Amino acid sequence: MTMPFYVSPEQLMKDRADFARKGIARGRSVVVLQYDDGILFATENPSRALHKISEIYDRIAFAAVGKYNEFENLRVAGVRYADLRGYSYDRADVTARGLANAYAQTLGTVFTTESKPLEVELVVAEVGATPDADQVYRLSYDGSVADERGHVVMGGQAEQLGKRLGDGWREGLTLAEALALATTTLGAVGTDGQLLAEGAERDIDGAQLEVAVLDRARPRRAFRRLQGAALAAVREVEA
Amino acid sequence: MSDAGRLGDAFLRPGSSSFLDFLKDHAPELLPGRVDAAGGAALAPHATTIVALTFEGGVVMAGDRRATAGTMIASREIEKVFPADDYSAIGISGAAGIGVDLAKLFQLELEHYEKIEGSLLSLDGKANRLATLLRANLPLAIQGFVVVPLFAGYDLDRGTGRIFSYDATGGRYEEHEHHGTGSGSIFARGALKKLWTPGMDEAQAVRVAVEALYDAADDDSATGGPDPVRRIWPVVATVTALGYQRVAEDELAAVVGALVTARTEGRRLA
C-alpha cells in the first residue's frame, strides 16, 4: 500500500490561495465607487459583449474579475437565485446581503472541497434610497466577505490602486467626478501591467471602457449601462 | 436546495436563458397550470375587455377596470394591462388571478433573458415565449381557468407597433391594425373597426381606445365603464420607440370628459 504524501492543511490552503490570487491578478481591474446619486462600476474592457459588470436584479448589480467562464457561471446563478426568490416571495425580498451570503457559501465550499479554487473576485452592490443605505460587498475566492464603504478596486495591482482611489474619493461625488476618478485609477496601470507614477496615468478611450451605474433615481430597475454618446456626455462634463 | 445557503447545482448548471425552463427543472410547483382545481372555475373572478390598436410610430393597449365573479363585481379597480418589458405590453382577459400570475411570469421571463444574454429578445421571440407560457397553463385552461392574453409591442427592427392575439392552447396570431379580447370585445371591435384610420397619432389612438372600451362597457355587463365618481379610468398604455408609457390619470379624465360631452351633445339614445 502506498502512503499519500502528507501536506499540512496550512500549506494546502496557502497553495490554493496563491494559485487563485495569481489568476486574479493577471486581469484588468474593476473599480466600484459610490457617488451622490448611486453606485458606479468601471473597468477597461475592449469587448462589447463579454461583460464584467452586469445587472442581477432591480437594485442589485454584479462586478467581477478573474476567469471569465467561472464568474459568468456565478453571475448566471445569481440571476437565477434572485429571479426565483423574487418570484416565490416578493421583489422586495431580494437583497444584496442574501446574494452575497449565497456567493460566499459557494466560493467557500469550492475553495475547501474541490481540487481547484475559483479564480474570481466579486462585488455585489445594492443601491438604497440614500447613500447611507447603499450596500457594497466584496467577495474573495475563498468565500470571505467584506462590507465595503465608498470604494473598491479588484484585480491586478488592486492594493496600490485602492490606495490611490481612496485618496481621491470623498462623500457626495457627482457622477462625472466619480467617473473621472475611476478612469484615472484604471489608467494608473500601463499596457504592460506595470504601475505608472501619479500624474502620468494613461488616458483610456471611451470605446475601451465598460461603465455602468446603479442609478438611485430610477424606478424599479436601477441598472444602466453608459456607452457611446451617453458615456461621452458624462465624461465631457468634467473636461 | 440541499446544502443551506449555498447556490445549489441547479443554479450553477449551464442551461438555457429561460426562467420558465429553470422553474420546470428546479421548482415545478411554482409553475401555473400544475394545480388540480376542478370545479373552482366558477369562483374565480374574471377579467374582461382589452383592446389594442396601432398608430403612426407605435401601439396603444387599454383595459377596463372591472373583474366579475358570476353576477357580482369582484373588483372595480383591477389592472389588466402591464408592461411586459421596456418595449411591449401584455393585457389579460379571462381568469383574473391566473392571468395576473401569467403576466408576472412573462415579465420575469423577458427580464431573465435580457439579464442573462445581455440583449433584448426580438418582438416575435417575445410573442413566441408567451405562447409557450400559455401552453404550460393548458391543464388549468381545460378546467375552465382560461386566460386569453393580448400582446402588443414596438418592433425595434421594423420601427412599427405590432399586435398578437392568442387562444388558450397557445395558438399565436398576428393581428393587423387593431384587436380586442374578452367578453366585451365584440362591441369594442365594432367600434375599433369604425373609428380606426391609418396614420392616426398617439392622442387620436388613445381616444379611440377609450371610446372602444366605453362602447364595450355600454353593452357588456362584465366590462366596467369609466367611473367619474371614484375617479377610476381605464388603464391605457402606449408603446413607442421611447418605450412603454402609461397614460396619466388626468389625461384620461380629459379624454373621458370630452367623449361623454360629445355623446351628450349628440343626444345619442342607443
Automatic annotation (TrEMBL), chain A:
GO biological process entries: modification-dependent protein catabolic process; proteasomal protein catabolic process
Highest taxon in the source lineage: Bacteria
Location in the cell: Cytoplasm
Name the UniProt record assigns to this protein: Proteasome subunit alpha
Subunit structure: The 20S proteasome core is composed of 14 alpha and 14 beta subunits that assemble into four stacked heptameric rings, resulting in a barrel-shaped structure. The two inner rings, each composed of seven catalytic beta subunits, are sandwiched by two outer rings, each composed of seven alpha subunits. The catalytic chamber with the active sites is on the inside of the barrel. Has a gated structure, the ends of the cylinder being occluded by the N-termini of the alpha-subunits. Is capped by the proteasome-associated ATPase, ARC.
Organism per entry: Xylanimonas protaetiae
GO cellular component: cytoplasm; proteasome core complex, alpha-subunit complex
InterPro entries from the UniProt entry: Ntn_hydrolases_N, Proteasome_alpha-type, Proteasome_asu_bac, Proteasome_sua/b
Annotated control of activity: The formation of the proteasomal ATPase ARC-20S proteasome complex, likely via the docking of the C-termini of ARC into the intersubunit pockets in the alpha-rings, may trigger opening of the gate for substrate entry. Interconversion between the open-gate and close-gate conformations leads to a dynamic regulation of the 20S proteasome proteolysis activity.
SUPFAM superfamilies noted in UniProt: N-terminal nucleophile aminohydrolases (Ntn hydrolases)
Molecular-function GO terms, alphabetical: threonine-type endopeptidase activity
Pathway this chain belongs to: Protein degradation; proteasomal Pup-dependent pathway
Protein family membership: Belongs to the peptidase T1A family.
Function recorded in the entry: Component of the proteasome core, a large protease complex with broad specificity involved in protein degradation.
A Pfam family matched in the record: Proteasome
Swiss-Prot/TrEMBL keywords: Cytoplasm, Hydrolase, Proteasome
UniProtKB/TrEMBL annotation, chain B:
Residue ranges the record assigns to the propeptide: 1-47
Pfam family, one: Proteasome
GO MF terms, alphabetically ordered: threonine-type endopeptidase activity
Location of this chain's protein in the cell: Cytoplasm
Top-level EC class: hydrolase
Cellular component per GO, a single term: cytoplasm
Record EC number: 3.4.25.1
Biological pathway: Protein degradation; proteasomal Pup-dependent pathway
Keyword set, alphabetical order: Autocatalytic cleavage, Cytoplasm, Hydrolase, Protease, Proteasome, Threonine protease, Zymogen
Keyword Transcription (UniProt): no
Active site: 48 (nucleophile)
Biological process, per Gene Ontology: modification-dependent protein catabolic process; proteasomal protein catabolic process
Assembly and interaction partners: The 20S proteasome core is composed of 14 alpha and 14 beta subunits that assemble into four stacked heptameric rings, resulting in a barrel-shaped structure. The two inner rings, each composed of seven catalytic beta subunits, are sandwiched by two outer rings, each composed of seven alpha subunits. The catalytic chamber with the active sites is on the inside of the barrel. Has a gated structure, the ends of the cylinder being occluded by the N-termini of the alpha-subunits. Is capped by the proteasome-associated ATPase, ARC.
The protein's role, per its UniProt record: Component of the proteasome core, a large protease complex with broad specificity involved in protein degradation.
Assigned protein family: Belongs to the peptidase T1B family.
Listed name of the protein: Proteasome subunit beta
